[in-house]
Fold this sequence. Notes:
Strand content of chain B: 5-15%
Shape of chain B: elongated
Shape of chain A: globular
Number of strands of chain B: 4
Structural class of chain A: alpha+beta
Largest sheet of chain B: 2 strands, antiparallel
Helix content of chain B: 25-40%
Radius of gyration of chain B: 23 Å
Radius of gyration of chain A: 28 Å
Number of helices of chain A: 28
Helix content of chain A: 40-55%
Order of helices and strands of chain B: HHEEHHHEEHH
Largest interface: A-B, 58 and 55 residues
Oligomer: heterodimer
Distance between the termini of chain B: 26 Å
Strand order of the largest sheet of chain A: 1-2-3-4
Largest sheet of chain A: 4 strands, antiparallel
Strand order of the largest sheet of chain B: 1-2
Distance between the termini of chain A: 24 Å
Strand content of chain A: 5-15%
Amino acid sequence: MRGNLIRTRIKIAAFCGLAALVAIPASARTWTRQSDKKTIEAEFVRFDGDNMILKMSNGREIPVPKTMFTKADQEAAELFAKIGDNTKTLKYAKQIDGLLAQNLVRAGIKSFNEPLPDDLFARRVYLDILGRIPTREEFEAFASSPRPNKRQELIDNLLLQPGRAHHLFNYFADMYRLHGDADFPQGIRFEPYIQWWKDSLANNAKYDEMVHQMVIAEGNMGHNPAAGFLLRDAGMEFDAFSNFGQVMLGIDISCAQCHDHPFDKWTMDDFYEMAAFFGQTQRTLARYQTEGGMGTVMAKMPNAPENWKEQMDAYASQQGINLENPQDARQYRYYISALGWNLTDDEERVTPVPPNIDEIAGEVHKPRALVGKTAKMGGKTRREALADWLVDTENSRFAMVIANRMWSRAFGRAIAEPVHDFPAEGWDKNVPQANVLRALGNVMIAVDYDLREFMRIIYNTQAYQTVATLEEPSMARSYTFQGPILRRMRAEQAWDSLMVLAHGSEIDTIKGRDGSFIKNYLDVDFHNDSLDEIWAKYQMFLSNRGGRAGMAMMSESGETMTANTPRLGGMELIRAAEMEQPAPGASLLDTFGQSDRMVTDEHTFDGSVPQVLALMNGTVTDYLTGSNSKVVTELEVLDAPEDKVRAIYFTMLSRFPDDEEQATGVEILDEYGDDGIRDLAWALMNSPEFLFVQ
Amino acid sequence: MHIAELAGKDSFSRRFFMEKSAKTALGVGITAGAGALPSVATAQDGGGKAKSLIYIYMSGGMSHLDTFDCSGNKSKDSLGPTEPISTNVPGIQLGQNLPKLANHADKLAIINSMNSTNGAHDQARYWMLTGYEKLATIVHPRMGPMAQELLGKRNEVLPDSVIVGQSTSNAGYLDPSLSPLPIADPSGGVPNTMLLTEDSRFKRRMEIANKLGKKFMDKFQYGGPQSYIESNAKLG
Lengths: 694, 236
């Protein structure tokens, strides 16, 4: 009720052209006393034993036994204790709504889209937050709940579930090009880095801290998994820098590697000056040049004693490895390479401009920041200076870049497109919603780069909680955000939704790949580990056989075991984030547009005949609509055909069937019996409504 | 004509079946008219006359020194044990293991001068297949998508190029609709064309899908599904 009242106030205020920010009540919630149903307005602060500390509207904080309030209130308090009170959340959401509403008025649009009805709301937030459809039970629970704040509570509850990290991971996997081996030689695996991403997102690590770690990381991926970011492009230092620019700075400067940028203001010198921040960073064991370009130095194993490699080789020979025989020594050499896939900084090292860049070939540039305030070197290494400069809150660009991307996850379109490249200066001239993006950047800074809280704010906006826009916006940049855009599910959402049909909600807890095993055998302390200990780690490496087949995992007690995931033939029936990255072979994920992770943001949403054929005739469809399938067998407990039809609609489309659909469904079941159930399930799975997020 | 009847062995009707099923499942429109073969783009002036091309790329295949670049002009060291043999064209020699092909040398245009200076397999392969140097920031299109982009679409629904032996494909920086149709296993053909049920049941399912899906399609006439369908329709 309160929510509606506030929404109405905003609407009137905005569309009368009054100030966007309406006076916002300080309290977040109405609390109801069990005994006499009296209510108070107060903010939840925290628990103190069995008491709740509530902040009253006069600002005073008082302890109240939690059992004084209704069960619904107590559960809400518990939720707040985990995810935080929503006072500021709702405040920021209203602020964003206010700006959007102003822009709508200026664009001549009457209002936001119609509010999302309950039975579309559930499917939308499950897909947007958890990256999968709700189960029949989950939908029924929400639809039948009488609680007044059930939408806010559902959002908060979903944000706390493990599935949230899966869905967010899929987005970042596309953006950061997370790939199991990145087509590098055997032995080089990126699972520890991928695992770091998953763990960080599951723990809701702050995004600016994650980025900072990635930029300054040292060692190999065993020592520091975040090193995977720069090691991803080892051997292609300037491309690595271009990717850094696109992904972290939102600037595509890759053109300027070879010539001055045709449209934007970047020159080649700008490119190489910025790239110079990485100029002293050594990746892998390759040779590198020293100052003056005189000769090359064959790098030893970094951070290891001078003769470490000789000693290790001697030990290996003693163990029976014939180092002269390439076949014999192959796995051993792969392991040494993997250990040496390493980030170190060396003041002597230089990275000159490559020889094929005619005008400035061979030049060595000093580091200089492209935009915003100057980077301060101080006593820092170059990468430390760069990282500090990047996430400095005065450099609002960094905050806006990630805010822009997170926004696109909820609305199907970013405010500034393309997300990996919006101009450094004058970008706001071409972006009608620039004021919103600036505000979002400020919000991102205000919530300290807490992505979960940021998304919580977006999901609580009125603009988000409307039905999807029915018409395709004509130009990417001029969309007015009166609501989200109707979009097709990501490949991972589609697959994960099929997994829900197979396993129900437990799909969120089925584990697949785990990078800790690989991390452990890479994490060698060259100074302090004995050769015996290192040899034992080499044995671990061997048991994983480079990681291709049957990924070994480490159980909690430290034993090696093979990932034992549910399968259908060769396919693992687990969530996309738990599989090999990207999904291997001729997978449904690939058919539906999953990126091959070679270039950033390559996921595609176009339709194709292979997609249609896969859904119509594929093995997974057969499995999901077979007579023994979960979808079919769980209907056996229902007697009446009307109930069965409703249940199928809940399961497949997470909504009630309308009268016509109900009648059609019952007709089918009457005529064809159990066969009809399977036909109905098949038909709904193959309808466009299944694949689209309304 | 019922959809299920079209899922026959004949390659033409198999294609027609796919087009029809795409129409029902996603509302793809067939603008060419039922049964009409799309017109084939004619060669431009100065262009080639071939309408179709089969490109065989042998990764790790036989050496040119033993096959097509095997001539008496080469030093014994580079030839190894393979001897050159004459063909039905004076001046052209092939390796001794291609005696039958030697009778058809007049039908071959052999290019031995094309090579790369890159010894790394992955980079050199990329160069051969795209004509560009491999970078970490962009993916160039291979021949199929590039040809389709330049020559125009010939097929309304299916891609104009096919890639055999790979399960994934893409069009590089060109529109994803230009991606080749991937056929991972040549003996399996286009995957997922075998119906899960008998024809009549499939037909029934399609009718149900049509009926139940109509409302959604009507609602979003101009929106997402339409462009999804259009790109499906072009399937290029």
